[in-house]
Design a protein that fits this description.
- The protein is of the alpha/beta class.
- It has a single domain (14-378), classed as Aldolase class I (TIM Barrel, Alpha-Beta Barrel).
- The protein has helices spanning 14-21, 28-43, 84-96, 115-123, 129-144, 157-164, 196-208, 225-242, 269-283, 300-305, 331-339, 353-357, 365-374; strands spanning 46-58, 101-106, 147-151, 169-171, 213-219, 245-252, 289-290, 310-314, 344-348.
- The protein is globular.
- The chain starts with 13 loop residues before the first helix and ends in a 14-residue tail after the last helix.
Amino acid sequence: MSTLHFTETAPPTLEEAYALIGAEGVALLELMHAAASLREAHKGRAVTYSRKVFIPLTTYCRDDCGYCTFKHDPGHPGAKTLSPEEVLAIARRGRTRGCKEALFSLGDKPELRFPEAAAALARFGHRTTAEYLVAMCRLVLEQTGLLPHANPGTLGRAEVAALRDVTGSMGIMLENVSPRLRGPGMPHEHAPDKAPGARLAMHRFAGELKVPFTTGLLIGIGETPRERVDTLFAIRDLHARYGHIQEVIVQNFRAKPGIPMAAWPDATLTDLLRTIAVARLVLGGEMNLQAPPNLSPEAYPLLLLAGINDWGGVSPVTPDHINPEAPWPEIQRLAERSAEVGYHLRERLTLYPEYITRKPGFIAEPVADAVRRLADAEGYAIPAEKRP
């Protein structure tokens, strides 16, 4: 029995959270029990996922992050901007496999660094990657009925507003609010778009514009446990002000060949579980908390027991282009592993049920018809075989 008694209305203070996340703090099992109890009090025993198709719009990026395998510079065989025809072909493949979400991932402002990226955009009639992304989200929405979710990198307010009209949701990983990670030898040294202030500003724009928004932490990249807590509190404060953070991801770093951090140690499972549990206690039982299942395939049940209630987007069609070495789990296998510890799997859309049924103003009018076609009365996804 846990002696921790944090609630939705009485979450940990900053100092209490610092103590909880430290390895010398409360025992991990007690921490996980408290987190899972809070999660179940608000979410029950359902665990959600979104059936998605992954569209890597462009692998050009002006940033050089120490852990990234997605970005490719000109001359690399993987350096490419997809054409509209290629985008539609991927989306249509997803639709035939029952996907409802089209996840757009892309590099950040590559046209500002690489003439090749600017030339590719010009061939498709656009000046900026953000402008092209809006056009491709609209194309997929109108031609396939899939709901776009965009991970666009850092944008200005007007760009977020334009993207809102053609997406069900958006996201950007906050990763960490510590400016220290942009220092010499750190993972964001050569990544101007990873400046915490710029990323926090985009979170605020999304809040002001009522965008269902995904954010998260990347752990194990050189941050301290306290810096993780500072990041969680920044997210909590943003959500308290705007109510727009629909999902927080706790993602663990995994080393890969060919990256600057290839010799860096992976984040440990213990570290991941402790961070998930503290995130649940800090963010409360109502927050949707996710850990990518393909990055911890041996630990599905433990992630649930640490306090998550969502597995994120899982694709039956396309690989995880961000972590290509880590295949998606079979959805049936995910259901079976969840059931092993008493949880049942439910499919959601790219925006969570509460943003469909209980939070007015978060669905842009051009997207509303697609949401109505895809969602049931509770706001969950209607299985493809049951849709009219």
